[in-house]
Every structure is written in structure tokens, then in C-alpha cells.
Specification:
- Strand 1 (35-40) and strand 2 form a beta hairpin.
- The longest helix is centred in the N-terminal third of the chain and has 20 residues, at 12-31.
- The chain starts with 11 loop residues before the first helix and ends with a strand.
- 17% of the residues lie in helices and 34% in strands.
- The protein has a domain at 34-113: Cupredoxins -  blue copper proteins (Immunoglobulin-like).
- By secondary structure, it is α/β, with parallel strands linked by helices.
- It contains 1 helix and 8 strands.
- The protein is globular.
- It has one helix at residues 12-31; strands spanning 35-40, 43-45, 48-51, 55-61, 70-71, 86-91, 95-100, 108-113.
Length: 116
């Protein structure tokens, strides 16, 4: 009686390994928690942050007054944020992004995006 043998291609092991590794990296990147900036007492806190490209920043309004988050260059703009509301933006390119509150233009902040 002859036995049937099924053999996997030699390259299957490394391909499966790298596919699993890629999936793990993508999952970790997708599940990374946003960096938080609080809005309180008419100020962004911290006022300046440094993050790697691909990071999401979450602004949370802890103030009793509505605020916005608006990039100086017009790259993003939140709607009005009431108490407890939040706004998120992902920074993909390196550089410095200044922002302000359009309701209270004296409120300013900067996101420094740098490769690690």
C-alpha cells in the first residue's frame, strides 16, 4: 500500500513567519493609544509635544468653555469642542505644526513631528 505524502513548499515557513510579523506590527501600530493634550484654563497642556510620524494626537476639552483646535497652516480644524468633547488628528509628515483655538486665538500649541 502506497502512502500519499503532502509536502509544503520550502518557502512557506518564512512567508508565514513574515506575514505574521507584518500583521503583528500593523496591529500594534493601529492599536497605539493617541497622545493626549488637555484643554483647561484657556491653555493647551502640554503646550508643545514631540511625536513620531504616524502618531495620533487627541485634544480633550476639560474647560467649561467651548474651544477649537486649528492648524496655523489650515491643515486641520476641529469643530467647536464643548466640555468633555475631543478631537483627533494623525500626523504623518515630519515638521512642526503650530495650532491655536479659533475662539481664543491667544491659546497656542505646537506639535513637533520627528523620526525616532
Amino acid at each position: 500500500m502506497e502512502r500519499l505524502r503532502i509536502m509544503a513548499p520550502a518557502a512557506r515557513g518564512p512567508v508565514v513567519f513574515f506575514a505574521g510579523l507584518l500583521l503583528a506590527v500593523m496591529t500594534a501600530a493601529a492599536s497605539a493609544a493617541p497622545v493626549q493634550v488637555d484643554i483647561r484654563k484657556f491653555a493647551f497642556s502640554p503646550q508643545e509635544i514631540t511625536i513620531p510620524p504616524g502618531t495620533t494626537v487627541r485634544w480633550v476639552n476639560d474647560d467649561e468653555t467651548p474651544h477649537t483646535v486649528t492648524a496655523d497652516d489650515g491643515g486641520f480644524a476641529s469643530p467647536g469642542l464643548d466640555t468633555g468633547d475631543h478631537y483627533e488628528h494623525t500626523f504623518d509628515k515630519e515638521g512642526d505644526v503650530a495650532y491655536f483655538c479659533s475662539v481664543h486665538p491667544f491659546m497656542k500649541g505646537v506639535v513637533h513631528v520627528r523620526k525616532p
